[in-house]
Amino acid sequence: MAVDTTYYLILSAAVFCTGLFGILTRRNALLFLMSVELMLNAANINLVAFSQYYGNLTGQVFALFTMALAAAEVAVGIGIILVLYRNFEDIDVAEAATMRW
């Protein structure tokens, strides 16, 4: 018994809204990173759901590329967070504004 595509889209919208809420309300850089990951996972759910709905593998291939992009984004993000912590002893993104000229 297959699950209808609508349920996947509702789940994806809920996960995306959770990530968007995390980005808009938090100032911690780690929570920013986790929220972006939630938003990318919501996009992956959409890609796989539509791939299953249309019966081709294109969406699943794009989801794999998105996972690779997310892994690279985490590697760069952790590096930035470490630099923030070393310079400011805090990972509050409001402090990063003082790094500008």
TrEMBL record:
Membrane-related topology note: Multi-pass membrane protein
GO cellular component term of the entry, any: membrane
The EC number(s) this enzyme carries: 1.6.5.9
Root EC class: oxidoreductase
GO molecular function, one term: NADH dehydrogenase (quinone) (non-electrogenic) activity
Alphabetized InterPro entries for the sequence: NADH_UbQ_OxRdtase_chain4L/K, NUOK/Mnh_C1-like
Alphabetical keyword list: Membrane, Oxidoreductase, Transmembrane, Transmembrane helix, Transport
Tree of life domain: Archaea
Protein's cellular compartments: Membrane
Coiled-coil annotated spans: none
Residue ranges of the TM segments: 6-24, 31-55, 61-85
Recorded family membership: Belongs to the complex I subunit 4L family.
Protein name per its UniProtKB record: NADH-quinone oxidoreductase subunit NuoK
Gene: nuoK
